[in-house]
Design a protein that fits this description.
The protein has two domains: 127 residues, Rossmann fold (3-Layer(aba) Sandwich), CATH 3.40.50.300; 59 residues, no CATH class. The protein contains six helices and eight strands. Helix 3 packs across helix 4.
Length: 192
């Protein structure tokens, strides 16, 4: 899938993130977006999928049906884990997704009763269960210990068989273990 950033500029008050950024990306499989904190990785994702409009320029080629996992879990506190995932799919698919992330025993537990790592896995299950043409994950494994990360990486690889996956990470080992293509942003304004 080819997506083009054409002359994209983004600025927040006194910080310029992108200036006349132009590049065509060919997304397939897993792509890791890397760079120092504050360089513009989240802004890149948000502009890519249209959640944020650039000051100038455009993005073309990105599909209308996408899934976005934010850095925050964004779970609905009044719903249990199963219901939180089922907002994007049928109940059987939600149950399967939760079982895949190791939460089959927590289906009817509300977010406030789950640990931070469990909430993150509910959010991941919801992202995996959502049927779309592109999967964007902003630091999907934050707050998870190494053993949980290792258990979840194959699920991300499985997702990449059905749609392109672009995920933000600071961990080169994650990118390497997924055999991911790497996009690295650096500088201010950011460049590849």
């Amino acid at each position: 899938m080819n997506v083009t950033f054409q002359d994209v500029s983004v600025r927040y008050a006194d910080k310029t993130v992108f200036t006349h950024f132009t590049h065509t990306f060919s997304f397939s499989g897993v792509t890791a977006l890397m760079g120092a904190s504050g360089v513009g990785k989240t802004t890149f994702l948000r502009v890519l999928c249209g959640l944020e409009k650039p000051e100038s320029g455009s993005v073309t080629g990105f599909p209308a049906r996408f899934t976005y996992l934010f850095q925050e879990d964004r779970l609905l506190p009044w719903l249990d884990a199963l219901q939180n995932v089922a907002v994007v799919c049928d109940e059987a698919s939600a149950r399967r997704a939760l079982e895949e992330v190791g939460l089959g025993e927590e289906l009817h537990t509300k977010p406030a009763e789950l640990s931070g790592g469990m909430r993150r896995r509910v959010a991941l299950a919801r992202a995996f269960a959502h049927d779309s043409d592109f999967l964007l994950l902003d630091e999907p494994f934050q707050g998870l210990d190494d053993s949980l990360r290792a258990a979840l990486l194959p699920l991300l690889q499985k997702e990449a068989l059905r749609r392109p996956v672009l995920f933000v990470t600071h961990d080169r080992r994650e990118a390497q273990s997924l055999d991911a293509s790497v996009l690295e942003l650096h500088g201010s304004p950011a460049v590849l």
